[in-house]
Amino acid sequence: MKAMVLAAGLGLRMRPLTLLRAKPALPVLGRPLLQHTIERLAKAGVRDVVVNLHHLPESVVEALGDGRRQRLRILYSFEREILGTGGGPRRVREFFGRAPFLLVNGDVFFDFDLRSLVARHGSSGALATLALRQKPAADGYSPVVTDRRGRILSISGRPQPSRGTVSMFAGVHVLDPRLLERLPQGVSDSVRDLYLPLLAEGAFIVGVRGAGAWYDFGRPSLYRDAQLRMLRGRGRQVLTGSGARVARAAAVRRSVLGAKSRVAKGARVEQSVVWEGAAVEDDARVFRSIVTTGAVVRAGERAVNVIVLPLGTLGLDELTGVERHGDMAWVGIE
Q1: E strand or H helix at 2, and its extent?
Q2: Which residues are CB-contacts of 58 (< 8 A; sequence separation ≥ 6)?
Q3: Which residues, including other chains, have CB under 8 Å from residue 159's CB and lie 6 or more apart?
Q4: 3-state secondary structure of 296
Q5: pLDDT tens for residues 84-125?
Q6: Domains and CATH numbers, the chain
Q7: How far apart are CA 27 and CA 62, in angstroms?
Q8: In this model, does residue 144 exceed pLDDT 90?
Q9: Angle between helices 33-43 and 57-64 (to 10 degrees)
Q10: Cross-strand pairs, 2
């Protein structure tokens, strides 16, 4: 089976983290988010994947390579202009051939049973099968209404308001690649320009409620808090990457420490995410913060609810509320 991972977005709401890496390449539990995604696809039997690129493409390629570690093949499609969730797949339509393929948003963490989703698609006869999640109380997610059989009746109240089970689209779907031929070359959206017109025509599209973890890292605070919840769900207080060093006199609680990070004597790190290679020096305090690669919280400093990153980061001057701490920049987390 083949799949496409959408990884071309700018990740504007995740700045300043996405000034350093593309959002799908940000570390989650000590590894690039995309590595988790590719492992899910490989486990589901996917053997060929195409990943689209635009913003900081080298960070995505560095995170994934050619796929040999996961025993699959990864190809890349660079987009000079971001083509969208429909235009990106449309551009590489020939890659998919004739069999249904998986289309996955690269900026979300999920742990669905993809084999079950693909099997449901095959047995239902649907043109497309969308993975759904229980709709959260927070605004900003479009409602997807399904009937008792799982048939999608409407998305965001279109083509018309409907009664049924209300869910949200999780950004994971299986579809017939011939549907892409309905889209124009260039920019398009898979929901607005493909699924909504199909629903208006009465097409059979299915939604399947997925069990398992799902996190959308919409803001740095959500990115931090989601990882802390993942730790708790795994029964862990601390996740320590390979080569990380924590001094005996240091205290680390409910935090993720990346590979080769360092927490010195007397330091305290709590409810925080420390990227690979970052450092917390003697007697420093880091609370509910993110310390990025190459960043240092100096001896005796107190970093609370901030992102710490090297001052020379490109694009940092465009942000407001940046505090200078020597050669480091501190940005408040929203």
Answers
A1: strand 2-6
A2: none
A3: 196, 199, 200
A4: strand
A5: 999 999 999 999 999 999 999 999 999 989 999 999 999 999
A6: 2-216 (3.90.550.10), 235-332 (2.160.10)
A7: 12
A8: yes
A9: 50
A10: 48
Strand, helix or coil for residue 121: helix
Q: Which of 222, 213, 24, 75 is nearest to 138 (CA)?
A: 222
- Residue type present at position 24: P
DSSP structure class, residue 189: -
C-alpha distance from residue 152 to each of 9, 86, 110, 124, 162 (Å): 27, 19, 21, 13, 10
Q: Which candidate, 74, 2, 1, places its Cα nearest to that of 34?
A: 74
CB atoms inside a 10 Å sphere around CB 30:
21
Report field, pTM of the whole predicted structure over 0.90: yes
* Rg of the chain (C-alpha set): 21
CA-based diameter of the chain, in Å? 66
Specify the 3-state DSSP secondary structure of 22: coil
Q: What is the spatial distance between Cα 49 and Cα 96, in angstroms, rounded to a whole number? A: 9
Q: Is the pLDDT of residue 140 over 80?
A: no
Residue with tokens 């998919």: 96
**C-alpha to C-alpha distance for 100 and 160, rounded to whole angstroms:** 28
DSSP state of 178: G
Please, are residues 76 and 193 in contact by the beta-carbon 8 Å criterion?
no
One-letter amino acid for residue 266 of the chain: G
Question: How many other β-carbons are positioned within 10 Å of the β-carbon of residue 321?
Answer: 9
Interatomic CA distance for residues 252 and 28, integer angstroms: 18
Tell me how far apart the terminal alpha carbons of the chain are, to the nearest angstrom: 40
